[in-house]
Amino acid sequence: MKNNIILTREQRENFERFIELSDRYKNSWFWNDNGNASRRHYIEDRDYLSYETVINNIPYSVYFSVSMSRKNVYVTKQVFKGDKQTTARVIRTLLEKDLSKEDNMKKVC
User: Fold this and answer.
1) pTM of the entire predicted model
2) End-to-end CA distance of the chain
3) pLDDT tens profile 36-73
4) Does 103 or 35 have the greater pLDDT score?
């Protein structure tokens, strides 16, 4: 694998959370009643993520937010690599190329 990288624990946790949130809300425009306003606001606050970091001198920025009405769920997600907006695939690739995960696996075994 070329261009291997090492992510810090904070970077890995935030990127994994972004991917998990993206997968959870995939194709979730129309749901059943989302409960009362208090529950909707709780979910909106819980599932918000804004994170910026630098990996190999390249700035990365991820943003994820959920907005809920009584019947609809609206998701906004953005990924920036440098100055250009890109897709979540970039984050998945970073996680795949991360060598720190392998080092941790060796320590456990």
Assistant:
1) 0.83
2) 22
3) 889 989 999 999 999 999 999 999 999 999 998 887 88
4) 35
Contacts 24+ apart (CB under 8 A), 13-16: 14/49, 14/51, 14/53, 14/62, 15/62, 15/91, 15/94, 15/95, 16/95
33 CB contacts (<8 Å, ≥6 apart)? Answer: 70, 71
Smallest Cα–Cα separation from 74: which of 108, 11, 31, 38? 31
pLDDT digits (tens, 9 = 90+) for 84-99: 999 999 999 999 999 8
Phi-psi region of 27 (alpha: psi -120 to 50; beta: other; left: phi over 0): left
Q: How many residues does the chain have?
A: 109
Inter-helix orientation angle 89-97/9-24, to 10°: 140
